[in-house]
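User: Assemble these into one structure.

Assistant: Restating your components, then the assembled model:
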Amino acid sequence: MNKRAKQRLIVVTAIVLIAVGVLIYATSQGSAGGAYQKTVAQVAADKTLVGEQVQVSGPVLAGSWKAGQRPFVFKITDQGKSDGAQLEVIWKGAVPSAFGDGTVAIVKGIVGDDGALAATSLVTQCPSKYASATDALTVGDMVNKGENFLDKPVKVTGYVGADSVKAVGDAERFKLTSEIGGGDSLSITYSGALPDGMKDLTKVVLSGQLGSDGVFTATEVSLDQAAK
Amino acid sequence: MSLTTLGNILLAFAGVAAIASIGSIATGRRMRGGDNLVDMGHYLTYAVMACTSLAILLLASAFLGNNFSLEYVAYNHPTVTGAWAWLYKLSGVWAGREGSLLFWEWILSIYAAVVAHKFMKKHDALGSTAVAIINFVQLFFISAMFIKLNNPFQPLDPSYLDAAGKLLVEAAMNPLLQNPWMVVHPPALFIGYAGLAVPFVFALAALITGDTSSRWIKDCDRITVFSWLLLGIGIGLGSVWAYVELAFGGYWAWDPVENASLLPWLTGVALLHSMTVYRRREGFRSWTIFLAALTFVLVLLGTFITRSGVVASVHAFEQDMLSFWLFIVMMAGSMFAVVVGLIVRRKSLGGAETFERVISKEGSYYFNNLLMTVAALLVAYLTMASAFKTWPLAWLTSWWLGAGKTYGAASYDALARPIGIFYLFIMSVCPMLAWGGSEPRELLKRLKWPLIGAAGVGTVLLTLWKTSMLPYYQSSSSSLTSGLNHTIAIIGLLVAALAISQPIYMFIHGARARSAAKGESFGRSFWTIITKSRTQSGGYLTHLGMGIILVGLIGSTMYVKSYTTALPQETGSSLKAGAYEFVLRSVTQKTETNGDEVYTASLDVKKDGVTERTIGPRLVLPIQLKSKNQSTQKVSIVMSPVKDIFVSFGGIDESGNVALNVKFFPMQGWVWTGFVILILGSGLASWPKRQRSLA
């Protein structure tokens, strides 16, 4: 192509690219700019995040919200740490589909002085799996074939290990054994309240997931119906 | 033999056939009298298609027969019952990650077979090289499926099944996916994705064989337009689904998965137009080849983003580093191969065109390429930025601007609006520019009638702005921002006016010229232009669709007004929203036959005091999600030419009040109408030519 046209083309290209650059810069200032991905624990601990735009995701804490409330207030925790740090979220818009206890909510907004998040966006993550087993698996299944069940929601049944129940906050909450007083043993963590009537050697049914470290994280613990 | 073994054997055979095909063609091309070997390579491509087809058939029949011995079937089978259950079962094939990879590869194998057939026994260097390369791409996907996490034929642990074959762990397809739009959306996308491998394959073949004339364009341009069209349809269907199924009220949220599909569509637009210049003027050769490679790389990136969870969760890699590196190497390798080729063949890529002026048809094509490439790179960057500090390539990217940050719709919109409006301005002006440009006086003469038409359409649009959009503006914090928004909207509407009137002018002008020259009636000329100059007419129609979409986008994203309230649960309580009033009649509850609980809020919609209709938005608690208090909503949408009224019922709160959200979306219908016209236009343009010899 001829030289003059080529020079002009380069100039116009440069103008376009600079204009886009200016646009990008202008966008990055203010709420249209990006948000830092942080965990609930990080937001709670890091005071420098106050006034900053952050994006946090985590499961909705059961009992922390009321349907139809305006503005809509709820709390989220970090995945698997429902007894750890919590983040209060204040949302002024409509509550999306699939919102509920345990649904992962992805919130974006500015951290307030009180540590609560004034959300500018709220979406719920599509739940990819949900399970309620009609027949529960055994402790033996978890211990011996555990790699097949990793991170899948399942139900397990077994007996509470003798002298194994501890208070909330410790890594292991109790042990689940395949037979009364013996057999295969599975380490259970659970941050909720244990059911009334649960004692050593009681038969219980747990819902939860087996982690790659061999510890079963329970989301629900109930007494076996048949044992009544 | 178990399904697992059979399925994996089929995949293995497909892989072996692909390797053998590459080997045959490579060897045959080098040997004297190696033509038979090359033919063998083409036949082996059919074999790959046969094996993958059998594999898909296997998976589909497992779904149709509720065969849960395969883990993938157990986790992706639908719970819908009734006459259409079989269709939803089929959709399980592409509902999850592993199955969708197999589906992708199957579609690709069909394209490969089509290409192999086209060049069967022709002993054409370029054609056979293309076949070899497309088999290499297939090999990539097949080997990806042999990574355990990607394999669709993994067996379910037998302890998950009871003696009767019934599932113990009741995992299944998400209810949000069990609707008609979601059944068709993925196949359309995959047909588009897989097809966009074809221009890349031919571009690389042209570089390898050294034949950089326009013939490779003629070999694959129909497939390219067709694939781009299907990709567009897939994107549109996804938007419709989002609008109708997800109660957030909207159809595009710049979600990573949405962006993943948009990226190759953007560069695909540039690619199609560059191919035109290559074919007709032997110009823009390097650009076209580069865009073919970029589009393919973005297709891979799109597949990677959607199926690997790289953006949604930074922990996704720990599970599957092998897949991560496989994708990265394939993307980088493809681009590298093409860049090397462009350098090696730079002398023969010079091209015949002389670029005389910036303001010319070729100038506008240049800006088309530039803007679409910049736009795609921007969207890709913003989408991936949140992973830049934590993914395995963090050593390279952690210091980049915005690394670690997540960008929401506000960020994308702020960039997309000015760039998009400028781009559509160029789109409107391009058809009126001449090759080589024209004297300014000549240019103004050409622009006279389109500009007059644009002034007319513009007046209508600005009136609509005043009456149907402005009243719904939800003002933001500062008047500066509001002023800026209105300015962008008005400029956008003026550009849309030009985008709409220009193609209409070209049709009328063309028909009149023809009817004067041929002595035909205007109507006959008009019809002939549409049916005989399909590429050109299809292009005009597509541009017209884009102009209409722009109007819809401005109204439905910039002038949305939302009202949220909690109505007391008594007949007659109402929500006032502008000229409208939503009066509660009743809230009823019903349990469906499948166990879902449905709450319906029945409301009268009044305008200026007169009841126009009754609507019943619903809150559904699907039986599978009951234990988690999770619900889905079936919203009510009242459509009219200048707006949609979107009403969602969020349930009854603790005080017994009815949670209601009403949103007004001005010009929403223009988005769907424009989209339909876009599809018709692209379809017309991609209609096969009967004679190929005429340039």
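Residues 479-518 of chain B form the longest helix (40 residues).
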